[in-house]
Amino acid sequence: MTLRTYKNKTPKSESSCYIDPSAVIVGDVRIAEDASIWPLVAGRGDVNYIQIGKRTNIQDGSVLHVSRGTDSNPEGYPLIIGDDVTVGHKCMLHGCQLGNRILVGMGAIVMDGVIVEDDVFIGAGTLVPPNKRLESGYLYVGNPMIKKRPLKESEVNFLSQSAQNYVELKNEYLEEGLSS
């Protein structure tokens, strides 16, 4: 079963979403219009919530998780992903906040308390340590990450195009009857 209830919280998704049958989405997970969740994604909203924005795609093998509250951080860290975000294959997003029009490169890890502003590229394999803030309009790369350079206009334009490409692909999958 792809969508699993945990402690009376059942994942909620719009009818325009595509969720691959091999994905596992548990608990308090909210998936907005035209989003897509691809094969082998694991999203566990058990000790906090996960919110996935419009036209956002979470690609194969990615892990989405949250952190519970503690004495020093009573609210814990939910995972909040904005609109038009492309999360590449095998990424790990843990208790962070991603704005709109972001590309998270394959194999990147973004940790608790990180805030990523709008219009950002995170390079493949990048590690973003806890509690960092990634400023809008830049490419970030490395382990640990560094601010590499401003984005080119063509790269900024690509952010929305990438999300739209996945909307079209998920529509094809839905037409084929391939969702959960």
Automatic annotation (TrEMBL):
Pfam families the UniProt entry points to: Hexapep_2
InterPro entries in alphabetical order: Hexapep, LbH_gamma_CA-like, Transf_Hexapept/Carb_Anhydrase, Trimer_LpxA-like_sf
Gene3D superfamilies from the UniProt entry: Hexapeptide repeat proteins
Classification via SUPFAM superfamilies: Trimeric LpxA-like enzymes
Name the record gives this protein: Gamma carbonic anhydrase family protein
Species this chain originates from: Salinimonas marina
